[in-house]
Design brief:
mainly alpha; elongated; transmembrane helix
Length: about 90
Amino acid sequence: MTNLVLRVLLFLALGFALGWAHAKAIAEGERIHHETGERARPTIIFVLRLVLLCVAFGLIGKSGSMPLLASLLGFVVARLVRRRGTKLPHK
């Protein structure tokens, strides 16, 4: 039982880290685009972000459905926490 709880917490933390990095990459791409008007670097960041997420969740999915669900939950929570901490621009 303890082993199961530790595995869930481990994959929850891993998903949280992935979600935090994902949200940071989104913010960085938006910052680059707004400051410089450049489109190439934000596009490259976008593609790398998606590829890394697919690889990461693919590898986690090979561990089973419980690790995948725990990491997805951590991912969503991190995105919500990170988004809640940013200020939205006023139009």
